[in-house]
C-alpha cells in the first residue's frame, strides 16, 4: 500500500460528508469528474474500497468509515501544525471556514471578513451562509458567528457584541389592529413567525418585569428568512420579534414602532469554535478582529 496523498484525503472527506461527488465538487470548487478521479486514486493507493457507488447515491463502506476518521485527525493535525508555526511568526494563514446566518452574515460578517482578507492576504477565507445549526467538528468549520445565547456545552464561545430582539410592527398595522398592552395579547395578533437556525417555531421567549415569560404566537405568514419577515412587517402584515441590529434604523425613522418595550429577548452575538483560541492563529485573529469591528461600527448590534 502506498501512503495516501493529503489532498486526496481531503477530497474523500468532503465526499463522505456530503454523500455526493457533486456536492463535494461544488464545495471544493472542482468538477465532479475530477473529485471522482481523486477518490479512485486514493482507493487504488490504499487497496481498499472506500465508497459504494450507484446511479442515485454514494455511501461509505466500513473501510471508508475507518479511513474517514483517521483522515480527519491527520488533516486536523497538519492544519494545527501550520497554525502553530504561523503563530510563531505572527501571520495567520491557510483555510478559514466561517459560517453565519443569512441576515447577520450577509450584512455584517461578510464586509468584516473582506477587511480581514485585506489585512492578512495569506488567509484563504470561506464564508458559508447557513440558516441551520452546523456541526463544527463534523463539517470542518472553524467559526460559527451566531446570534443567540443557546450554545452547547461542548463548544467554546467568545462574546462579540450585545444584542437583543424587540417586538415591533408598522404604524399601519397598529392603526388597524390596535397596540397590544400585555404579552398575552400577542396571541390575538397576526405574528410573523420565523424558523431560523435553532429558534423554536412559533414560541417567543421574552424577558420582562416579571422575569422570563413565554407566549405562543401564530399568523398567516411565516418564513425561514429574517429579511423577508422584516419586509412583511414593513408592509403592515403583522408583529415581528427581530434583532435590534436589523430594525434599529426602521424604528429610528418611524417605519416601525416598538411595542411593549419592557419586554425583550436577549440574543448576543458569539463566535463559536471548538479549539482553544491560543492553538490557532487564524481563529484567534479573526475573533479579535470581529469583536473590534462590531465595536467600531455605529450601526452594529452593541450600539
From TrEMBL:
InterPro entries on file: LysR-type_TF_proteobact-type, LysR_HTH_N, LysR_subst-bd, WH-like_DNA-bd_sf, WH_DNA-bd_sf
Residue ranges constituting the HTH lysR-type domain according to the UniProt record: 4-61
Superkingdom as given in the UniProt entry: Bacteria
One Pfam family recorded for the sequence: HTH_1
Key words of the record: DNA-binding, Transcription, Transcription regulation
GO BP terms in the entry: DNA-templated transcription
GO molecular function: DNA-binding transcription factor activity; sequence-specific DNA binding
Family assignment from sequence similarity: Belongs to the LysR transcriptional regulatory family.
Descriptive protein name: LysR family transcriptional regulator
Source organism: Pseudomonas amygdali pv. mori str. 301020
